[in-house]
Design a protein that fits this description.
Mean pLDDT: 80
Shape: elongated
Strand content: 5-15%
Number of helices: 9
Low-confidence stretches: 253-259
Structural class: mainly alpha
Oligomer: single chain
Strand order of the largest sheet: 1-2-4-3
Distance between the termini: 27 Å
CATH class of the largest domain: Alpha Beta
CATH architecture of the largest domain: 2-Layer Sandwich
Order of helices and strands: HEHEEEHHHHHHH
């Protein structure tokens, strides 16, 4: 099912590029947009993980540099029956983490320096177990592609805005500026809808996996409480179009996009984890 969604996302992006190309440059603009969309699709599929990691200046760490972190991930991978992913550390104080890659064999997990300092070993197990749950369920490709596509659409939105200001319509459309204005409004909404298409249910499933892999649902419940509290207090530097990647929404207190958060309420996630613990799962 995630493969089908990925294809739909890339098809949607191609169509949007072509429409905007026509608005900005007529037939020539459509051809240029089609070529650009093809390149974007290729890079989204094969390099979305590298794009996401580079966006946050995530640094790869070796086992010699982070032996305890590697030991945690290795134990979780054994329980999840997954190959060892690449491990990265994000140089930010805001506590958070995400997984990316197009398959379990090409997966990477990244955790912020702030999370490593804030969380206990058990809480880190819960967080990384959650991320490996996304890897196991093959959520990571669709999440990475969705983040890349949403980011591209936000760039297109800026292009439309400047075209509207400086009269960048093609001759075929110059008498219809309302079309450009409408696209300037629709494009960022489309980016948000793409994020929302990543079902909130996948976060609950990843929470369940994290609870199982770490051995105790309360590890992740405790971690989520801390992540939620500190993420609101410590600014996270990044692109809101990538919010669906992270274990908790790093942009929860920022503007209009908060109305369409890709994450379920933290309180509900914690409640379910505590219920799992009470039921001995």
């Amino acid at each position: 099912m995630n493969t089908v969604k990925t294809v739909l996302f890339l098809t949607f992006l191609t169509g949007l590029f072509i429409i905007i190309g026509d608005l900005l440059g007529g037939r020539t603009g459509m051809i240029i947009a089609l070529i650009f969309a093809g390149l974007m699709n290729f890079f989204s599929y094969f390099f979305s993980d590298k794009i996401a990691l580079a966006m946050y200046r995530a640094k790869p760490v070796s086992e010699e540099e982070a032996p305890e972190l590697y030991a945690i991930v290795r134990k979780l991978c054994e329980r999840a029956n997954l190959p060892m992913p690449r491990i990265y550390i994000i140089p930010q104080e805001a506590p958070n983490a995400f997984a990316t890659g197009r398959s379990p064999k090409h997966a990477a997990i990244a955790i912020t320096e702030g999370a490593l300092r804030l969380l206990t070993k058990e809480e880190i197990m819960g967080v990384l177990g959650h991320e490996l749950g996304h890897v196991k369920h093959r959520d990571i490709l669709i999440s990475s592609v969705a983040a890349t596509v949403a980011g591209a659409i936000m760039v297109l939105s800026d292009m439309i805005k400047w075209a509207a200001i400086f009269g960048g319509l093609s001759r075929d459309n110059e008498d219809h500026p309302i079309i450009l204005i409408a696209m300037a409004i629709v494009a960022p909404i489309a980016a948000t809808l793409i994020q929302l298409a990543i079902s909130r249910a996948r976060e609950y499933e990843a929470d369940k996996a994290g609870a199982i892999y770490s051995g105790n649902p309360l590890y992740l419940a405790s971690a989520l409480e801390k992540l939620d509290q500190y993420s609101k207090a410590i600014p996270f530097h990044g692109n809101p179009a990538t919010e669906n990647l992270f274990i908790v929404n790093p942009f929860s207190a920022r503007g209009f996009i908060n109305l369409f958060s890709t994450h379920p309420p933290i309180e509900e996630r914690i409640r379910r984890l505590r219920e799992m613990a009470q039921n001995g799962i």
